[in-house]
Each structure stands twice: as C-alpha cells, then as structure tokens.
Amino acid sequence: MMASDVPVEFVVCPVCGADRSRPYRLRMYRIDCTTFDLVRCECGFVYINPRPQPAALAALYADPDYYTSGYNLGVETENYFTRRAELIDHYEQALAGYERESGRAAGDFLELGSAGGFFLEAARRRGWRAKGVELSSSAAEYAVREFGHDVFQGWLEDAPFAAMSFDMALADNVLEHTVDPAATLHQLFSLLRPGGVLVVIVPTYVNSPWFRALQRVRRRLPRRLIGSHLLKLLKFDQDDAGAPYHILEFDRATLSRLVRRAGFDIIAVEGSLPRPAHLFKVARPSLQTRCLRWAFVILDHLMRAGVLPPARVRLLARRPIARNVDGAGPRADAQLQVRAL
C-alpha cells in the first residue's frame, strides 16, 4: 500500500467526544511512508488522530504477517496458528475462570475477534454453543474449515445476530482495534440476555505511567541489559514503528467509564502484565533472562494486587436483569411492569 493510498480521517475523542487533545507520541505507527501520531485527550484517553479510514484498517488484517507480529505485538515469537493446541488448552482454563467468577454455566457464547476459532473451540469443549465475529477473512475461513465454527466475517454491527441471543460475550484484545468502542459495547449489550456476562481485555501499557516514564528516560536506559526484543516490545524507538493495529489506547478508568455507560454493571477489574515469550519460553535462560523473568513476575503480581498501574486490564461485567429504557440512571423495568398492570 503506497502512502497516497492510505485514506485518513480526523476524529474526536471516542470516550468524551471532545476535540481538545495534545500530542502524546509522534510517529507512533506507520503504513509504508505514512506515519500516525498518538494524541491524548484531556479526559485521559489516548488514540490515533488522524487515523486510517475503516477500509484501510480492515486491509491491515489481510496481511499474512499479522498473525506472527501484529496479532500479539511482539509478546509471542511464534505464529498464532502454530500455537493451536497450546492456546485451546489455555483458553479452556481461562473460560473456566470466567464461569467461576460470573456464576454462569454453559449457554450461548459470542466472541468478538474470534481469529482462528481457538477460543470458540475451547468454549465448545466446555459445553457452550459458540459463535464468532472476525474481520480477517483468512482467519474466519480457518475457523470454519478446521473446526466447523459459526463465524461471521466482517464488522459486529453487520452480524446477523438477534438481540438477547447470548449468555456470555468475549472481546479479548479487540476493543483497541475498533473505530467506535462505545457503539461496540452498546451492540454487545443488546446481544446479551439480561444477566449475561461480558469479558473485555485490553492492553493499557501505552496509556500508562510506565510508558510515559520510559519515554522520558529512554535515552539513558541500559539498552544492552534490556535487550533489543524487549526494547521493541516496549515501543522505545520510532524506527520500530509498526502498522496502526491499535488505534485506541485504554486505561482502567476510560474502559470502566465506557462499559458503565453502555449499561453494564462491573463485576470485577483486574490488572496484569503480559509475559514475553522470548523470556519465558527459553529452555536454557541466561542470567540476564532469569533476572528479567523475575522482574516481570514481580511486576505482574503487584499489578494484579492493584499496587501498581497495569499494562493490561481484564474487566468482567454483567447486563442487569432490570434496566432503564435509556440504559442509564436508576433501573425502571419493574416500575414499567407495575404501570402496565
């Protein structure tokens, strides 16, 4: 894609609707010769502005390299599809945890951004009737071909699902790719039955004190000690700018604000720190690697305990059984039923 072929659009803050942002990180991403800047709104939200138009964004996911580098943004070193068995096992354990936390048994399950269908397969193995939505045609086709899953290829708003069709919905590292996160959350709300559960996972490192502090001192950090792979993962240099897969950068406050505004009750919020594969999947780690492992483990525990700002947030929410007609304020379903009588 040539620079002249990248159509862009200027946008206001997707969280508060204001147009009062300041530069946050210039030339954060690149498509060929076209660079994209991150800005930060006065409400605290960080996003790309101007950003590629939706058609240009959709085209990014057709790149075969996406499922090696773009999909995990450097946390994993292997191609997504080669980790099939590992990921299905991991997702079965994760879903078991969501079931315990939410008290939901197997029912109808929706995954937004279902990729190759690995989580859908884990859900099916646990007794759920699983469906997915995936923007990448190659990934959607893989899920249908390899597992026989029911996957809609395209945007969520175009999916042919009836309202109140699902008991649980998952958006794992998806919301940061959307052009209108508020509309996406409202759509997920409408697709869940009353009492249905939503699980949202988003990266928060770029919109965190960690990123801002490291940007200020990056020229003075011991690069040899940190290592080139970790430096790239931490997004130190503009020279390493990749494609703008993440057009939004959440923190805990902005994510919670959008979820509540969509009508959900928040059950739990947990922070964490992803563990890079190049550190944790090495058979014979060096002393440097072992030290970095311990640093990640300790930071992860402190983030999960809420002591330190997280690099990733997992939010568990529920659609109330009774809610107001406009989705905000005190719930009035019971009052409406009384009036109807």
Please give a structural write-up.
There is one protein chain. By secondary structure, the chain is an alpha/beta fold. It has one domain: Rossmann fold (3-Layer(aba) Sandwich), CATH 3.40.50. 34% of the residues lie in helices and 23% in strands. The chain has 12 helices and 13 strands. It has helices at 54-60, 84-102, 118-125, 137-147, 181-191, 209-217, 223-226, 228-233, 252-261, 277-280, 287-304, 333-340, and strands spanning 8-9, 21-31, 34-41, 46-48, 51-52, 108-112, 129-134, 150-153, 166-172, 192-203, 248-249, 265-272, 312-318. The strands form 3 sheets. It has a 7-stranded mixed sheet, with helices on both faces. Helix 2 (84-102) packs across helix 3 (118-125). Mean pLDDT is 87; it is low at 324-341.
What is shown here, in short?
The chain is α/β, with parallel strands linked by helices and 341 residues long. It has helices at residues 54-60, 84-102, 118-125, 137-147, 181-191, 209-217, 223-226, 228-233, 252-261, 277-280, 287-304, 333-340, and strands at 8-9, 21-31, 34-41, 46-48, 51-52, 108-112, 129-134, 150-153, 166-172, 192-203, 248-249, 265-272, 312-318. The protein is globular.
Largest sheet: 7 strands, mixed
Query: DSSP strand (E) fraction?
Result: 15-25%
Q: What is the level 1 CATH name?
A: Alpha Beta
Count of all domains: 1
CATH topology: Rossmann fold
Please trace the helix and strand order, writing H or E for each element: EEEEEHHEHEHEEHEHHHEHEHHEH
Count of beta strands? 13
Please count the helical segments: 12
Q: CATH superfamily, please?
A: Vaccinia Virus protein VP39
Helix content: 25-40%
Q: Please name the CATH architecture.
A: 3-Layer(aba) Sandwich
The first-to-last residue Cα distance is 62 Å
- Structural class of the helices, strands and pairings? alpha/beta
Kindly provide the radius of gyration, computed on alpha-carbon positions and rounded to a whole number of angstroms: 20 Å
Mean pLDDT: 87
| Quaternary structure type | single chain
Strand order of the largest sheet: 8-7-6-9-10-13-12
Q: Spans with pLDDT under 50 lasting ≥5 residues?
A: 324-341
- Overall geometry comes to globular
